[in-house]
Each structure stands twice: as structure tokens, then as C-alpha cells.
Design goal:
Shape: globular
Strand content: 15-25%
Distance between the termini: 30 Å
Order of helices and strands: EEHEHEHEHEEHHEH
Radius of gyration: 16 Å
Helix content: 25-40%
Number of helices: 7
Length: 187
């Protein structure tokens, strides 16, 4: 994208601010960032703990592990980890709340939001799987955890495609901006 996509604007907010807004109500939020500009944007939000990942070449699994290390260093004991990339604009409590409810009902399952059979985010992982996430079994990411514990997957079907929407290319971003402008004009 040529710049940190989380700082790209969607209306009057960054993609990160849009994503954080959806998370604010149901839970405390810890985010891991690799760019100082993203950190300052995130710190402007209340109830957000920001951790800097100093290795921009690292993968998402490394950022997840940093958040876990931070939690071990002083955060209150938690029941699980909700993983949401910082570029999921359009995600709302309509997608997050059913996932949290499913986790409460199935606290030892991996909860995965899906749309029309495709897995997306949020993904909620029981704290009891922390050692698996930290192990070499997940060095390639959380997809490996889903394979390792396929018998413990609980899929939450969401009516919105927002659970699948990552912004990875300039055309993804332009399509999102057009949709946002259309939705804003119809309100």
C-alpha cells in the first residue's frame, strides 16, 4: 500500500479508529503496532493499551505473542484472546457480540466469525491454548492452531461480509471508500 494502511482515512476516521470503535464497548483492547504513527493514532482512543513491535518484518503471530507476553507481565487474568486485524473497517458489535456470546457458551472452543462459509475475524481463542500459540506449532500463524484443534472450532455465521474484509491493495481501499460514501449518503 506504500504507507501504513491502518492510518488511511475512511470518512473522518482512520481504518484503525473505525476498527477500534467496534471493539470499545465489549472489551478492553490491547493492540500491537509496528509503526509509530499507528501507535499515536491508537493512543488517542480510550481503553486502548498500545504495544510497539519494533520488528516491521515480523508476522501477525509475532504481534499476538507480544500481546500475550504483555498480558503475562501484569494484565488481569483473562479467559481468552480476541484477534482482530487493525484493518477491518465495517466491523460492528453485530459481529463481535455474537462471537463473545459464543465464547461464553463454549469457553474452551476457538470461536471464528464467518460469512457464507468463509472464516474471518474476530477469532477468539481460549487462554488455555496460549502455550500452543507460543509454540513452534503456530510459527506460521493461527491457521495452524485451527488445524491443531479442528475438533474445538465453533463457527459463528455473521450476515455481514465485514468479518472478511481486509484492506490489502489500493483497489480494496478504493472499493471500501466508495461503499462508505454510498452508505453515508443513504443514511
Amino acid at each position: 500500500m506504500g504507507k501504513p494502511k491502518q492510518l488511511m482515512m475512511l470518512g473522518e476516521r482512520t481504518l484503525l479508529e473505525s476498527t477500534l470503535e467496534s471493539l470499545r464497548a465489549p472489551c478492553a483492547v490491547t493492540i500491537v503496532v509496528v509503526h509509530a504513527g499507528i501507535a499515536s493514532n491508537a493512543r488517542s482512543s480510550k481503553r486502548v493499551e498500545v504495544i510497539q513491535n519494533d520488528d516491521p518484518a515480523s508476522g501477525m503471530i509475532d504481534s499476538i505473542r507480544l500481546a500475550m507476553d504483555h498480558a503475562d507481565a501484569g494484565m488481569p487474568r483473562i479467559g481468552g484472546w480476541m484477534v482482530v486485524p487493525g484493518d477491518l473497517p465495517g466491523l460492528t458489535s453485530n459481529e463481535i457480540t455474537p462471537c463473545i456470546d459464543a465464547f461464553r457458551a463454549h469457553p474452551e472452543s476457538i470461536i471464528i466469525a464467518a460469512h457464507q462459509g468463509r472464516h474471518g475475524h474476530p477469532m477468539i481463542i481460549p487462554a488455555s491454548m496460549t502455550s500452543d500459540i507460543r509454540s513452534s506449532a503456530c510459527d506460521n500463524g493461527l491457521r495452524d492452531l485451527k488445524v491443531l484443534h479442528r475438533d474445538r472450532l465453533h463457527i459463528v455465521d455473521c450476515p455481514s461480509a465485514a468479518v472478511l474484509r481486509n484492506i490489502n491493495t489500493p483497489s480494496d481501499y478504493e472499493r471500501l471508500r466508495r461503499e462508505h460514501a454510498r452508505d453515508t449518503n443513504t443514511r
